[in-house]
Amino acid sequence: MNRREFLVSGGASALSFASVPGLSGRAMAQGAKEIPIGVLFAMSGANAQTGIDARHAMETAADIVNNSYDLDLPTAKNAGLASLGNAKIKLIFADHQLDPQKGRAEAERLITQENVCALIGCYFSSVSSTVSGVAERYGLPFLCADSSSPSLARRGYKFFFRPAAQDEMFSAAMFDFLDSQRAKGKKIETISLFCEDTIFGTDSSNVQRKLAAERGYKIAADIKYRANATSLSVEVQQLKAADADVLLPSSYTSDSILLVKTMEELGYKPKNIIAQASGFVDPAFYNAVGDKAVGVITRASFSIDMAERRPMIYKVNDMFKARAKRDLNDATSRELMGLLVLADAIDRAGSVDGTKIRDALAATDIPGTRTIMPWKRVHFGPDGQNPDADPVLIQYVGGDKFATIFPEAVAVAEPRWPMKS
Q: Exposed, middle or buried: residue 370 (CB in 10 Å: 0-12, 13-18, 19+)?
């Protein structure tokens, strides 16, 4: 039996499963076997809320895996992983602090000292890039729960898997929406690109630049700024001067807040905003800018109004909300579902050997109806990307509410266009 088989809990940095919120009274019997999984997010610094929310999502998914629930989700009905003697998964968290090199060091610690059988994370594509490289060297799966840079799946890695969409898929949906609006007679001729300068923003703008050329949209402004900026006044003046029909920002939370506040200060009122999610789906953003963001459209992997067709989404959201005091969103839904996909693969592998889990992930085939997402299916191509992770577009309508507006097959409301109409 190798060093990763049926490890017993231990270590001061581990999250004892009996201490997970909501599990008091369901603590495991002493000596029960546990399956350690390394979880890497930014839990300190300017974007710490994303990591805190991710932790709640992971803990909710672990609850679903480790206990029995009447939910049509992978591993939900059995308490624990059946093929491993009902062993429980144990989450071992690490704070990468939005630093790729810190992420690299923490990934190596989780593998060599905590003996994890897989890694999951990391929200920021720049950190997912380095962490997945570490996992590849050690022959352990890296489940990319929420980072969306297309280039992550183009490095020839065999241990990289991403169930959710990447930015080419998201951006295509955004331009499909623009095309549909134009076909309905809306005037949409120009766009402005606005992106932060890490791998996420750079890849996003590259895709959008290409799609604009292919679909016949003129780029009125193309602005790249330094991530975690302290001022965006110059950039917003440029956007105001361009006055495009649509602004397409790719920004994390702190930058998204700064962008909207600076636009208000400088009197720039975009006709329409279609965002690349990230900061524009973070509750912290809407808490900070309030009604200034009403009408903002963002691409997404999730919309809670899908629960009208699939009621179990309400149940899962209630479980998450009991921990996080907020609803699931684009990021946390992907994180929760990512851990369920990973746990399902470990269960089917019947082992915590990295190569066996990798092979089980490669053989994954989960119908979209057995997820909380709008996806047709969860399966992976040779590059580790799920090609059937269908995106949606949602529009902020105020308070903490969004409405799905595209595609029309799943829409619950007509888009507000222009956004301030």
A: middle
Domains: count for the chain: 2
Asked if residues 277 and 237 have their Cβ atoms less than 8 Å apart, the reply is no
Residues 121 and 154 in one domain: yes
Q: What is the mean pLDDT of residues 19-43?
A: 60
User: Tens digit of pLDDT for each residue in 200-219?
Assistant: 999 999 999 999 999 999 99
Please check whether residues 243 and 261 belong to one and the same domain. Answer: yes
The label of the residue with tokens 């994370």 reads: 121
- Which residue range is the domain that position 178 belongs to? 167-300+392-406
Q: pTM for the complete prediction?
A: 0.83
Looking at beta carbons, which pairs linking 409-413 to residues 24 or more positions away fall under 8 Å? 410/303, 410/306, 410/374, 412/305, 412/308
Is residue 192 within 8 Å of 242, Cβ to Cβ? Answer: yes
Domain assignment of residue 416, yes or no: no
